[in-house]
Amino acid sequence: MKANPFFPEKIKAALKNDPPGMWMPNLPENCIRLSSGYPEPTLVPAEQLKEAVVSLLEEENDLPLHYLGSPKIVKLEENIQNRLASRGIHVKREELLITSGACQAIDLIARVLLDDETFVVVESPTYMEALEIFKNYTHNIISIPVDERGLQTKRLEKLLEERKSKGLALPSFLYTIPTFQNPTGTTMSAERRQHVMELAVKYNFFILEDDAYGELGFDNSPLPLKAIDKEGLVIYVGSLSKTVAPGMRIGWISGASEFISACAWFKKDLNHPFTQATMAVFLDRTNYEERIILLRTTYHDKYIVLISALEQFLPKSVSWFLPKGGYFVWVKVPGVDTSLLLNRALSMGVSFVPGKHFFLNPKEGTEYLRLSFSYANKNDIVKGIKILGKLLK
Amino acid sequence: MKANPFFPEKIKAALKNDPPGMWMPNLPENCIRLSSGYPEPTLVPAEQLKEAVVSLLEEENDLPLHYLGSPKIVKLEENIQNRLASRGIHVKREELLITSGACQAIDLIARVLLDDETFVVVESPTYMEALEIFKNYTHNIISIPVDERGLQTKRLEKLLEERKSKGLALPSFLYTIPTFQNPTGTTMSAERRQHVMELAVKYNFFILEDDAYGELGFDNSPLPLKAIDKEGLVIYVGSLSKTVAPGMRIGWISGASEFISACAWFKKDLNHPFTQATMAVFLDRTNYEERIILLRTTYHDKYIVLISALEQFLPKSVSWFLPKGGYFVWVKVPGVDTSLLLNRALSMGVSFVPGKHFFLNPKEGTEYLRLSFSYANKNDIVKGIKILGKLLK
Lengths: 393, 393
Fold this sequence. Notes:
The structure is a homodimer.
Chain A: H1 9-17, E1 32-33, H2 46-60, H3 72-86, E2 96-99, H4 101-113, E3 120-124, H5 128-135, E4 141-147, E5 150-151, H6 153-165, E6 173-176, H7 190-203, E7 206-210, E8 234-239, E9 251-254, H8 257-266, H9 273-285, H10 288-313, E10 319-320, E11 328-332, H11 338-347, E12 350-351, E13 353-354, E14 368-372, H12 378-392
Parallel strand pairs in A: 1-12, 3-4, 3-6, 6-7, 7-8
Antiparallel strand pairs in A: 2-9, 4-5, 8-9, 10-11, 11-14, 13-14
Helix pairs in contact in A: 2-9, 3-9, 4-5, 4-8, 6-7, 10-12
């Protein structure tokens, strides 16, 4: 991309970092998408959302089509408050902001908390979109490794101690996906959850908890950090993209009311009355607990299919974490550059995400790849893994 | 609002400037809304949008509910390209970005073009949301007065000459609503349009043209600046909020492809497949020309009602511009502080927007107020103006 003489330096720098939208090549048609973090298509409630729209517009006519929108927007907030309460999170209305998905939520939080002076701690590896967002606001990003029990909080403690003793700035916030992490699928242990909360209090930083996959445990779901947060240091981000439909673009932030006001200030796309009211009607008519159980068992079944295929078709040198929920399996392929592997895989009709995209230092991800079992059907999952196995042998 | 110790200075400053959402008090129930820039309720196509959703989901099932969304998103882009072409603006796909309304569009453009070093020229008075957005990015805002023929381009020329001769920074862009301006309703003359384009070329700045009301001329609509832009200096913002339904949150930016890429980079709410595909189906089934004619005649009728009421019920000292389209009439009430008047008006059941909100220096707006004839019905318009007349006598 040519540098526009009109662009301020910060923009030129941001655009130089990562050319927009260049992190994945276009997928060929009919490609088996083991790359995509999309929900299972048959569980996206198209019919029910259609009925929700019909019912909404028959009841309220043009109301949800204006700026101010419908009283149903409040219903959506109440519904989300109730769901959060069922997970141990009790928030008032002024502590909640509906966003257009989790990605916008993370962007708003970064805008409020980051500038060139402040820094942020991320997990290594972490959600690539969040990494891209943070790079737009600061150069000061530090990553702490994740293992099978989640973020290595002792390493975080060491970092904080060192920085404090040297008189260096402490982080504005830690970004973590403690439950069914993207991309590793790992879950932070109860002990580490306690530890990270203690560190936040001791060193006075926020925790940005991304809980997009939190309800999708195969058996059950651990309590979010927000539920054990006594000091109001956890900013919680949730989403209906993984449990209802990403195309509706509904997520949220929950945090202290003054923090929520600041985020709202920068949210210049305003409320989305039509989709928010539609979602409120849908949720009002849905047995959400039953829906979650269906999602859990469906994804567990597909996960089993993926893992079995990995065991059957991949070389012995290849290894992976065993997630307890979510959408992803994180695979290590020793001695293989997964970016190069992707081109060959695409030509054979299967996609995955190369590990490098999830790391602050892309080289650390060379031998890793992320597989998703959420979107492709079981037959395609097996077919896709067979192809990968063939390529790796 | 308490300053959060976690917030960087830029955020504290922004929040101190204008407490979020505080520019208008809550309106009492059943208030006659002469304040609101909302479309005429009976012309918001609730029934047709409902049919569009039903047809879309029956045809495509879950497709528009995923991230990637439906091929209809491309149809929406094509439809907007065709509409722009009918107004003399020819844009390629990579020169167009669909946004969640014009407000998000302006925010993205400001993010790309402004920082603390750069400055922006606005009209005086101007769209208050745009003013709030610019203040989030820079302190360097200069305003140039508008008269009945729009922006006073000779004053702009003088400013530019002076700054150039003093070696001061030239503006990054000029923000203008040349057609049926918000709040004054005025339209920039052809001569001034030519002049402002010449200035942009000579002094090398962008023009951010906000054309939200451009199609709503009572008789006809002048060509946008973008249509006479030979050098690619006009960044054009449009919206379906005033012509279809604001609750659908659909607007757009058109500009040079590298500029559009930069805006897209910061648009972290992603595409909105469900609403964009729905709008595509709606537009595909709608005779848009007929719709625009209906809007024009309807708003013209309501405008006549408002103007007649102003003539009949307001004191002789009160004056206003006569718009040729759009939603608003800009009223001067000599010797009256319209902020104080608002409280009394609200207690009598009618609202307007005090002039101060539209000015960089709020004091300049003390004697002005903005009336909207778009939303209230004709009886209420007359009733509302009668109340204002009573208060002013």
